[in-house]
Structure formats: structure tokens, C-alpha cells
Amino acid sequence: MGPDFSLALNEDLAEELDAEASSIAVVDGRIAAACLVYRDSTPPVVTAETVAHTTPDGELLVEGCVRRSLEVLADRGTDVAEFDGHVSDPHFLPVWTRLSPDGRWFHLVEVPADGPG
């Protein structure tokens, strides 16, 4: 993400994020993975990832975060959620696949900031 984009992305985060349903995995005092649940849409939008592609046990950490977040949502009676993730994410994709999701999905194409080759 570009340096100026993070401010815009996080501008309304406190109002949009469902802090109770979101989950964070901490390893050795540092955040290693997260599952963030956004309450600004119905159904809620869920994102999950590690802080780095090389995070040890990243898939297990993401799975634990996703399981906890989905349990909180289920306890509230929410039975549908939308996931926002990357098929190139080595930790999220296997977890998402095991959920056997159904419904519509789409694939975003990344265009380099400096334009075509």
C-alpha cells in the first residue's frame, strides 16, 4: 500500500470495525495474525491474514482467528458473512477453502502503480 493510502484506509476504522467479533493472534508479544470483522455492511465483511507471508504457523493462526470471529458472529445469530481476502495469501486461502464457501465471488486484478510494462 502506498504511504498516503494508509491514512485514508484507516480514517473511519474505529466506527467500521466490530472490535468484539474481531480476533488477533499475538505471538511473543507481537501481532502475528488478525481476523477483522466490519460492521458497516450487512452481512458483515470479514478479512483475515498474517502480518507477513513468512509468519511461522500462519495458517493455524489465521484459522484460529477466523474460527473465533465466526463463533462470535454465530452466537449473535449471524449465519452469513462475506470474506475479503487474497487467493495469493498462503495462509488465508487454505482456511477459506476448508470453510467450503458458497455464493458469488469475484477476482480483482492488480494493476501496477507505474502502469503496464
Mean of residue pLDDT? 85
Tertiary shape:
globular
User: Helix/strand/pairing class, anyone?
Assistant: alpha+beta
- Beta-strand segment tally: 4
Helix content: 25-40%
The tally of helices reads 4
Question: Using only CA atoms, what is the Rg?
Answer: 15 Å
Name the poorly predicted regions.
none
- Biggest β-sheet strands, sense, barrel: 4 strands, mixed
Straight-line N-to-C gap: 20 Å
Q: In which order are the strands of the major sheet placed? A: 1-2-3-4
N to C succession of SSEs: HHEEEHEH
Strand coverage percent: 15-25%
Notes on the structure:
This protein has four helices and four strands; from the N terminus they run ααβββαβα. It has 117 residues and is an alpha+beta fold. A four-stranded mixed beta sheet has the order 1-2-3-4, with helices on one face. Strand 1 (23-27) and strand 2 form a beta hairpin. The longest helix has 18 residues, at 58-75. The chain is globular.
Quick recap:
It is built from four helices and four strands; from the N terminus they run H-H-E-E-E-H-E-H. The chain has helices at residues 5-10, 13-16, 58-75, 92-98; strands at 23-27, 30-38, 45-50, 82-83.
Question: Secondary structure elements and their pairing?
Answer:
Elements: H1 5-10, H2 13-16, E1 23-27, E2 30-38, E3 45-50, H3 58-75, E4 82-83, H4 92-98
Parallel strand pairs: 3-4
Antiparallel strand pairs: 1-2, 2-3
Keywords:
single chain; 117 residues; alpha+beta; four-stranded mixed sheet; 4 helices; 4 strands; 30% helix; globular
